[in-house]
Amino acid sequence: MSAAGRTVGRHTRTDNPRLARMSLPSEIPEIVWPPLYQVRQAALQALLQQLEQIERAPLTEIIAGQEQQLQVLNNYLYQFSPAHRQRLVAAGLDPSQPLTLEGLRQLPPIRRRDVQSAGQTLYCSQVPQAHLPIAETHTSGSSGEPVAVRRTQVNQLFWLAHTMRDHLWWQRDRMARLASVRGSLPQTHMQQDNWGPPASLLGPSGVAHAFSVHLDTAPLAHELAKADPHYLLIYPTALQDLLRHLRLHGGGLPALRQIRCIGETLSEELRSAAREQLGVEIVDSYSSQEVGIIALQCPTTGLYHIMADNLIVEILDDAGHACATGEVGEVVVSDLHNFATPLLRYAIGDHAEVGPPCSCGRNLPTLRRILGRSRNMVRYPDGSRRWPDLGFVGYRKVAPVQQYQVVQHSLEEIEVRLVVERALTDAEQSAISQIILESLAHPFCLSFRYFADSLPRGPGGKFEEFVCLCD
Q1: Which of 1, 115, 153, 294 is deepest in the core (most CB within 10 A)?
Q2: Would you kindly state where each structural domain of the chain is located, as residue ranges?
Q3: Buried/exposed code over 161-197 (b: 16+ C-beta within 10 A; e: otherwise)
Q4: What would the CATH number be for the domain defined by 378-468?
Q5: pLDDT surpassing 50 at residue 231
Q6: Neighbours of 304 (CB within 10 A)
Q7: Which residues contact 462 (CB under 8 A, 6 or more apart)?
């Protein structure tokens, strides 16, 4: 038995004195760390207080809490998820023994295809009453492998708490005006007199506008100018289009204090462009539909703090070993609080770089950067892969390019998709080809395809600048 805790009835008795001091009895069955409460506002407020304690606790205490919750979770999943039970047995783990962090690492990672093929057998046949209701989340399918995951009100509570943590870390003025550009709105523009949850659960907040990411850039710029927000939440590629429009046609967002980016990989070039054109900084976050918020950017150092109070996040190399600080590997996530869909060692398809301990005083582990999905890597004929540096910054120096996307169809064929201000000359197209081929260091066969207004976005409104479609 691990020193983290022993299951006693509905609760777990902890042998860690620091955990014992911080923990009141949880009102939600099967959740022992951190303890949760029933009333929504009270639950959110109490969880935020717990999270503030956890982020400042020694890392050893955070790890002990993770293992304590993992044991309770695994005991439940073994009883009610046939697919999880089969997975434990296949890995040679004794289900009668508590699942330790060491034992967890014996489970081979599961991937989107595994979730798809498991179907209903993955889901738990019953969920603790206090965790209800259940909502089914469908991923956008940007990976090409859309999946459906069931999540409970406990998972939603952690999403709200981590969103609120982000507001608190960055000391945002909740009475200010907020505008968001999102992928799945029932109409192109919605307005309400508060920010909505979680901010509205904890007190008054300012006016909020929401705009569809499918709105053309010109009308979006017009509507944003009318809304005159202090804070803007937006996809990176939508922001890139907005900055391009403002550069070409003039205008700005004079009241803007900060931009928050979600949903896509954020480049340093875009951070610099926002700083230069709008005079504000971009704050990034890292999340997925399946497991919620994974990491938040630190206001002190810019590193990404992992939400270790809810998730165990591993960065693994090609051999499945843990990456060291500064190394890049595959992101594998274990959700400690989903009692509807077992997601232990779930490879979400992203790659990230392991970060160092942060100097801000928070002991949550860090990522230095998020690089994107495996399908955003170039494949070479010799079997190697690497992250593409396609020289995007140089395109506008040689041609009037407004938007771009590069798609690899085979090991030798790459399609360049462009939106341009006017037809390119042969010399301009040749110059772009030279930039791409020099950046890739391989003589790929390039073809060009032009679009009139904008390049199509993927499901959910997301956009990828490079996509590899090679099997």
Answers
A1: 294
A2: 155-374, 378-468
A3: bbbbbbbebbebebebbbbbbbbebeeeeeeeebbeb
A4: 3.30.300
A5: yes
A6: 25
A7: 140, 142, 183, 235, 237, 263, 264
Give the residue from 153, 187, 109, 164 showing the smallest Cα distance to 346. Answer: 109
pLDDT (0 to 100) of residue 427: 95
Residue found under tokens 């993927």: 458
Burial 111-144 (b: 16+ CB within 10 A, else e): bbebbeebeeebbbeebbebbeebeebebbebbe
Query: Would you say 422 and 400 are in contact if contact means Cβ atoms under 8 Å apart?
Result: yes
pLDDT level of residue 7 (50, 70, 90 thresholds) = very low
**Cβ(331)–Cβ(287) under 8 Å?**
no
Asked if 409 and 470 count as a contact pair (C-beta separation under 8 A), the reply is: yes
Measured distance CA(241)–CA(222) in Å, rounded: 13
Q: Strands of 275-381 (E only): list them.
A: 281-288, 292-297, 304-306, 311-316, 328-335, 346-354, 366-373, 378-379
Q: Is 414 exposed, middle or buried (0-12, 13-18, 19+ CB in 10 A)?
A: buried
**Joined tokens for residue 103:** 């034992």
Q: What CATH fold (topology level) applies to the domain 155-374?
A: Rossmann fold (3.40.50)
CA dihedral 80, 86, 89, 91 (to 10 degrees): -120
The reply to whether domains 155-374 and 378-468 share a CATH topology is no
Peptide bond into 109 cis (omega under 30): no
**Beta strand 366-373 pairing with 378-379:** unpaired
Q: What is the pLDDT of residue 15?
A: 52
- Helices 268-278, 236-249: inter-axial angle, 10-degree rounding: 40
Q: Which of 395, 351, 354 is nearest to 371 (CA)?
A: 351
Alpha carbon separation from 383 to 38, 377, 436, 444, 470 (Å, rounded): 53, 12, 20, 14, 11
pLDDT of residue 345: 98
Whole-model pTM: value is: 0.81
Question: Distance between CA atoms of 359 and 361, rounded to whole angstroms?
Answer: 6
Q: What is the mean pLDDT of residues 236-254?
A: 91
Asked if residue 29 has a cis previous peptide bond (ω within 30° of 0), the answer is no
Is residue 439 predicted with pLDDT exceeding 90? Answer: no
- The structure tokens listed for 5 are 């805790």
Confidence class for position 24, pLDDT limits 50, 70, 90: low
Give CA separation, 345 vs 33, 125, 334, in Å: 19, 21, 5
- Asked if 453 and 241 touch (Cβ cutoff 8 Å), the reply is no
Reading the block at residue 419, the tokens are 């939106």
- Please say whether the beta carbons of 114 and 149 come within 8 A: no
Which amino acid appears at position 154 of this protein?
A: V
Strand order in the sheet with 445-451: 445-451, 413-420, 401-408, 466-468
